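Quick question, first post here. What does this chain look like in 3D?
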Amino acid sequence: MAQYPLDLDLLRTFVAVVESGNFSHAAPRIGRSQSAVSMQMQRLEEELGRPLLVRMPRTVVPNAAGSDLLVYARRLLKLSDEARARLSRPEDAGTVRLGVPDDYAAFLLPSVLARFAEDYPRVTVELVCEPSRLLTAAVEEGRIDLAIVTRLPTQPFEVLRQEPFVWVGAPTRVAWSFDPLPVALFEPGCAARANVIDALSAAGRAYRSTYSSSSLLGLCAVVQSGLAVAGLAASSVPPTLAVIGEAQGLPALEPLEMSLIRHPASDAAAVSRLDEFLRKALRGN
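> Answer (accepted):
Ran it through. C-alpha cells below.
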C-alpha cells in the first residue's frame, strides 16, 4: 500500500482543533467553516487509519495517537514556516567591514559569524582586529561600518552585554604573591587596562607593569610563563591559564561593558543584517 506524505494543511487544522478545544473555535483560526474542519479531521484520520480525537458533547481532546501526532505536527509546521520565511526573504548581498578587539574575536566571533554566513551567504564580512579606541575612531571616520568595542565610562554607547572580567595566572606559578604585583596590561587607552589599574589603586596594592601591548596572544604568553598576572574577559581565558582572584589576595574587577557602534552613513542592507545579528548575539539571544 502506497504511503503519501502528511498533508500540512490537514496538520494545521488538526493543531488548531486541539489548541482550540473544538471544531467551531478552530474554524476562524484557519479561515474555514466548521463543516470543512470536521471533514478535514475525518480525512486525516482515514489517511492515518486510526482515530485521533475523542469527541465529547462540547469539546474534543486528542487520544494517545493524537497526542503523538501533535508533537510531530507542530514540528513539521514550524519547519515549513521557517523554510517559507527564509526563501521569501530578500537575498541581501554586499561587504561589511567589521571591527573587533583581539580578545572578543577569540571567543565571540567564530560561532556568530558561522551562523550569519549560513543565513546570509552572499554577504562578505571583512574583519579588522584592533583595540577599542582605534576601532571607535575608525567607525567615526567611516573606515569601517561596525565595531564591537569595550565602552569607556565617558562614552555614551549603549551597553549590550556585561562580560565578567577576571584575574588570570599561570597554574604552576605564584606571580600574585610578589610585591609589587607584576601585571601584564593591554596598551594605554584600553578599558581593560584602566579596569585593572583602578582596582589595584582602590585596594592600595602596589604593582609594576611587566608587559604592555594590544596583543592578546602576547599577554597570555607572558602570564603563562609566570612573569605576571593579568585581567581578561572571562570568555577569552585560554585553558592554559587559571582564573584567580580574592583567594590569592587580588581585588575584584568590574565587568567589561560591550557595545556595538555603527557609522551613520553605513546604511546598506548587508550592514543592517549584521548589525541586527550581532546585537542579538551580544544580548545572548
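The first helix runs from residue 8 to 20.
The chain has a mean pLDDT of 90.
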